[in-house]
Design goal:
four-stranded antiparallel sheet, single chain, 16% strand, alpha+beta
Length: 318
């Protein structure tokens, strides 16, 4: 027989008759469940890291110790120092003579820095119009350009569960830039705490992406009218649809991340350039998305029939 318990997050007493069968640690509130899941994921990650360190020690790999708690690591990371209320800079100021990287991490970091410093010598294609069209479609969809505050240049990044499709994007971009393509577990979701297995594409930093970052970002991602007007071709449109579109009784483009004015601009451009009539609808959160009528679906099918993209056959063959 189940006994009353207290929610591990808010402390509320929970009677057995009022607890959900799946909730044996929280009161059932969504925020408490998310907080518990985040804590649980963090504990699992800590155990994984601890087991990994033990394995490396058995292999004779040297470690560095945190001066605050004496815990051993390959690298004393900012996420660990955060538990002590310190930043990496503050830690180094307090303990200037203590190392924060072991010999293996120093070598890895050194090789990475050398690779990054030579990004302009990558023997790839010169950026051309096809690249700009590709990136326009990606940035209207799931792709993003990121730039660190202490970095001179930006890079392109994208992750997801469709391996074939992301691998196709990787192969396209690697014609121009040095890229990586890896499978890994995502960081815990900020709201739910859940983690997802997926594939992650990243390029090295490059001035081209700095240019895109200036055009496409103003605190958040925006739609730059002049840029999109120039590079929204059928190729860009198809990539955008593969990222953020769907087909059922009609064709939809999910534009919830953009403002009303930006979506109105896109609807006008789709009509004038491709003859596609779109109507702006709203989801339950009052965010705008584009819905096309039956005639436009027929026109759009003629466009999709001219393209074949790995992993996206289920979207393009409607």
């Amino acid at each position: 027989m189940r006994q009353p318990f207290h929610c591990v997050v808010c402390g509320q007493r929970v009677e057995p008759g009022y607890a959900h069968q799946a909730c044996r640690h929280t009161c059932g509130n969504a925020e408490c469940q998310a907080a518990y899941q985040k804590r649980y994921s963090a504990k699992v990650e800590q155990r994984r890291q601890s087991n990994r360190i033990k394995q490396l020690q058995l292999q004779g790999v040297d470690m560095v110790s945190c001066a605050v708690c004496n815990q051993e690591f390959e690298m004393i990371h900012h996420s660990h120092l955060k538990t002590h209320g310190l930043t990496v800079k503050e830690y180094k100021n307090l303990y200037p003579d203590l190392p924060t990287l072991n010999s293996r991490m120093k070598q890895t970091r050194g090789q990475g820095a050398l690779t990054q410093s030579n990004y302009l010598t990558y023997l790839g294609k010169e950026p051309d119009r096809e690249l700009y069209e590709f990136l326009t479609g990606c940035l209207l969809g799931d792709g993003y350009v990121e730039k660190g505050s202490n970095k001179r240049n930006a890079r392109y990044a994208e992750g997801g569960s469709n391996q074939k499709y992301l691998e196709w994007k990787y192969q396209f971009l690697s014609r121009y830039f040095s890229c990586t393509f890896n499978e890994r577990l995502s960081s815990p979701h900020t709201k739910t705490g859940k983690q997802y297995q997926g594939w992650w594409l990243k390029t090295k930093v490059h001035p081209i992406f700095t240019e895109f970052h200036l055009e496409w970002y103003c605190k958040k991602k925006v739609v730059p009218p002049n840029f999109v007007s120039q590079y929204l071709t059928e190729f860009a449109l198809i990539i955008w649809f593969c990222d953020d579109g769907c087909s059922n009784n009609s064709i939809r483009f999910y534009t919830m991340a953009f403002s009303d004015d930006e979506v109105k601009f896109i609807v006008t451009l789709l009509k004038s350039r491709f003859g596609l009539n779109g109507k702006i609808l709203r989801n339950k959160n009052n965010q705008p998305f584009i819905n096309m009528n039956a005639d436009s679906k027929i026109k759009f099918r003629k466009i999709t029939s001219r393209f074949s993209i790995p992993g996206m056959e289920y979207k393009l063959n409607f």
